[in-house]
Amino acid sequence: MPAPLNGLSKSNPPKPQPSSYRSSIGSVLSLPPKWLQKYEDFITKNGSQVSQIESGLRSLTYVIPGRFRDAEIASETVHSSVQLLSLYHDTLLTRALSRLPITKIPSPHNRYTQFWTQRNTMYRRVAMLLQMVTYTQLLWEMAAKRKGGNRGRWRVVVLLEAIKALCRLLLLRITRSRPLVTPVLPEREPVPEDPEEQAAAANELQQLIGGDPVEDADDGVKAHEKEWAMPRTGMSLPSLPRPGDISSYLLGKVLTSDDIKPAPQLLNQIQGQAQAAEVLHILAPLIYALALARSKDRGSWTPWLVGLSVEYAARQLRDRGFRTTPLERDEWNKRAWAMGWWTMRGAFYEKVMKGVVGGVRSRMPSIVGGILEDYEYLWENYYFSTSAKRLTGFTGHIGSHVVAQSGP
C-alpha cells in the first residue's frame, strides 16, 4: 500500500449506531405528551385561576375593536383563540370531575349534556364542531370580507349558517327528536380543591410576604358548625343548622323530581307540531342570512321581517302542555331573551336603534362612549357581530365600566 502523505493517515469517523438514533428520536417524541400531561394537571389544579385569566382576556377583546388599524381582526383572533382554548379546558375539567366522587348533584343541563357526550361519540363530535364554528364565525366573516369583498363575505356567512343548521339537525336526530339545549356541551363546573393543598399554598404565600403561617381553619369555626365524629364507629354527623335557617337547610337536603330522573328523560321526545317548531327555530338564522344575502337594499324590512316571523312561528308552535319539563321551559326562556337581539339587526337597527345608540353614546362617560362608537362599526358591517353570544359578553363588559365610572 502507498504510504500516506506527510505521514498522516486518513481515518474514517466512527459511524453512529442505529440504536442511539432511535433512543434520541424516542426521547424527543416523548416530550410533547409529557408537556401536555403537565399542562392538563396544571389546568385541573388551578381551574378557578384559569377561568379568571380567560375572563380577563375576553374583556380585553371588548376594549380594542377599533382602536388601531385592523384591530378588529386582531381582537377577534384573540377572542376566538381564548374561546377555543376554554373549550379545551372545559373538556379537561369535565374529565377530572368524572373521576371524583359526586359531592353535589349537577344542574339538569349538565346532566343531560354529559349523558349524551359520554354515551354517544357522534353527539360529542357534532356538538364540538358546532361550538367551534360558533366561536370563530365572526373571524371567518372578517377574513372573507378582507379577501373576497362583500360578495365573498355573504357566501361565507350563508355557508357557516348552513353548517350550524346541519349540526343542529343532526343533534336533533341523534337525541331522538329531543329539543336542543344551549350550549350543547356541558358548562364548566369548578373542580373541588384539596383543603390540605390550599392550606399549604396559603402558608407558602404567607412566608413569601413575611407573615405568620395560617392557622388551621377549624380553629376559627364555631363548635356548633363542626362535624361531630362518633367515637365508637368513627363516622361523622353533619353540623346542625342555625335556629333561624332551618327551612333553607331542609330544602337543601330535598331531592326534586329532576334530580332522580334519568338524564335522557330531562327532555321529552317531541313530534308533530312541537317538532316543526324546533326545526323552524333551527332554520331561522339560515333563512334570515339567505334573505339578507339576496337583498340589495341594506335598509330593507323584508329580510328582517322574514327572519323574525320564522322565529316567532317557532315559538308559537312549541309544546305548552303539562308534559313540558323544567329544562325545556328554561331553554325556551333563553330563546325568548335571545329574540331581543333582533332589535340590533337589519332594518330595525338601521331605522330605529342606530339613532338610539347614538343618543345613549352621547350621554355615556367618555370611555364607554368610545367603546360604543367602535362597536357601531362592527354592528353596521358584520353579520355575526350581532349574535346573542357576542352581544351578551359585550353588554356585560359595558356594565362593568358603568359601575366603575359611577363609583366614588
How would you describe this protein?
- The chain is built from 15 helices and two strands.
- The C terminus is likely disordered.
- Helix 4 crosses helix 6, helix 6 crosses helix 10 and helix 13 packs antiparallel against helix 14.
- It has a two-stranded antiparallel sheet.
- With 408 residues, it is an all-alpha fold.
- InterPro entries: Pex16 (IPR013919).
- It is found in: Peroxisome membrane.
- It holds the Pfam family Pex16.
Features:
65% helix, two-stranded antiparallel sheet, mainly alpha
**Kindly state the mean pLDDT as a whole number?**
76
Biggest sheet layout: 2 strands, antiparallel
Rg to the nearest angstrom?
Answer: 29 Å
| Strand ordering within the main sheet | 1-2
Straight-line distance between termini: 98 Å
Order of helices and strands: HHHHHHHEEHHHHHHHH
State the helix count: 15
Q: Which segments are poorly predicted (pLDDT under 50) over 5 or more consecutive residues?
A: 216-224, 393-408
Organism: Verticillium longisporum
Region (Disordered): 1-25
Protein name: Peroxisomal membrane protein PEX16
GO biological process, one term: peroxisome organization
